[in-house]
Automatic annotation (TrEMBL):
Residues 85-191 form the Acyl-coenzyme A oxidase N-terminal domain. Transmembrane segments: none annotated. It holds the Pfam family ACOX. GO terms for cellular component: peroxisome. This is Acyl-coenzyme A oxidase. GO terms for biological process: fatty acid beta-oxidation using acyl-CoA oxidase; lipid homeostasis; long-chain fatty acid metabolic process.
Amino acid sequence: MARIVWRNITSVVLPVSMSMVWRTRCLTLIIMTNGSEWGKRTWEVSQSINEIHSATVDIVNFNDIELENVYLDWVGNCDGLRLKAGSQQQLDVSERIARLVASDLVFRKDNRTTLSRKDWFKNTLRKAAHAWKRIIELPLSEQEAFMLRFFVDEPAFTDLHWGMFIPTIKGQSTEQQQQKWLPLTYKMQIIGCYAETELGHGSNWPGGLGKASIHGVVYARLLVDGKDHGDNGFIVQHQSFDDHSPLPGITVAGIGMKFGNGAYSTMDNGVLRFDHVSIPRDQMLMWVSQVTREGKYVQSDVPRQLLYGTMVYVRQTIVANTSCALSRAVCIITRYSAVRRQFGSQDDIASNFSTLPEAHACTAGLKSLTTSTTADAIEECQKLCSGNGYLCSSVLPELFAVYVPACTYEGDNVVLLLQIERFLMKTVSQLGSGKQPVGTTAYMGRVEHLLQCCSDVQQAADCKMPSQEESFAELSSDLVETAVAHCQLIVVSKFIEKLKQDIPGKGVKEQLKFLWNIYALFLLHKHQGEFLATRAITPKQASLSSDQLRVLYAQARRNAIALVDALNYTDHYLGSILGHYDGNAYPNLYAKAWEEPLNDTVVPDSYREYIWPILKQQLRTSRL
């Protein structure tokens, strides 16, 4: 900011940015000079957000002072919240490293959506190598290095090296093994990954394995003299130090593009196969168990469950990191919501909505309900396919990416639900006049009873507040849920009406009744709290409905394949290697992996440029 000089000023009118105001009703003026805080003034803001455009602040004894910076800051509970995230020292490190990354052109993000997968992967290698170079140059502590990789914000092979490969060696190897391997890993003279088929996860494609890593902690069954001793960890070199080609007997390849334009496609998840490969005995991780030189298996007193300690540690890290991901998204949407404008004032919406016919309300509501439900269901299907659902070849990512815009185009779903709620409120307000609702709102003739059960309101007409707009804004989150419930009731009711008709096809009607029962009971179970709160059902009925739903789920599992086969979709139409009619998902996955362009060459094009210098400690560092 340019330096300014104030002379003989007793007050100043400062413009107030909307992005500052919506955070809090308490503002602070901070005046900096000569690198330190000269003074500050805090005052309460009483105006509403739309009325604040400037603020007048009295200033005393600032005559002829050259000011470096004058700015508004927001105060309140923020400091307490920031300190909960870590110590002040940790916050200072975080902010400093974040600025370091943001100012480095190598770590730029603006070109990510224009890169091909090959270029994106090469760019990721470049960033990872540059990050390591900066860590050496500065130099950075272990905590600072972790923060730098975090703020680079691009999944890379180094994540698995530092986050899984090293912790596994530290946690499962003997002291002698640690002395051999850890210095190499910390200097990145070897690059490792974690090659385990995780328990209950079903992922066979380790990250960092496809093209970048040299070594891996491989979990395999240990057979000694014909006896199976279960899974054990081994440090296995699978790529050559000389030219990065696979070692004899080893097949390794990347598995292809994943969900999203970039997402985890910057991580070279890979497939690994061994054919009569030998390794030295001392490359077995021997803290939990070992094989002696004489070929005898020896189990230590350490519980075997600790073999999976790295997996547990990483899952704990994932749980901890959910707050980072969620808070990031919440930050974006909160800031956007503060400046978002749609359809002008609320009064205009109300006046325009007064003539909305029931048909429009019904279609708008169902559009919102069905698109949101479908998008969520597609995503759930993707998650249920575990890691394979993240592959583009599963077509689930494409389905999700293609369908999600339906939640926005032709009317934003939340805005539509608020419009439906206005329609419902208008219907309720007419009950006092004796006008009975019909059609999809016929059930609202009983709403007066519900109001008496849940509030002090004695008549439906009493819902009117002195300011409808204020009450609508205050209750908008509850009203959205009400609109969703109204739309769900429409679906259930129309389903029943259809089942009362003649339906051709042997057994078709029975199966539709079965599916309707599941859907209706699922909604009842999902919103059980609301049903109990309004005394629409008793606790006993809630328990019975949950029991019946479990019975129906068990029946559905037996008929699931037949039900989806009845859709008669061809393999071509589905377009998914996971959903072929023949059921050969895993052979299809393996065959598809070899079509990945990165597998056109055994050694990645960028190996010599980025990986080789790291391994040989030949990164050029700046002389400071």
